[in-house]
Amino acid sequence: MWWQQDGAPPHWYRPARDFLDNHFPERWIGRSAPLAWPARSPDLTACNYWLWGHLKQLVYRRQPDSLEELKISIRAAFAEVTNDVRQRAIAEFDPRVRLCAEKNGDHIE
Fold it and tell me: Cα–Cα distance between 33 and 12 in angstroms, integer?
């Protein structure tokens, strides 16, 4: 498994990078990482352009009243993301990469 950072200032904090070096040795992506990734690079992964927003909608359909209800709601939301839904999100990857290339890396949304 690999870990990817987006270059946000908290991710540049030395203890954060030390943590990643210890838990994902040579397997993390980001600013000053084993695999360099420029800050503010386009987010093309299904998680960034779709999954987190989709999960947030599912989690907050009904406002959780406690931390325990929030945890239950998060687990239930992840359970609703079926293989079919994931495959459709993955299928959108290639067109997004092409659009990003057409825009010379500029914003695509």
Answer: 10
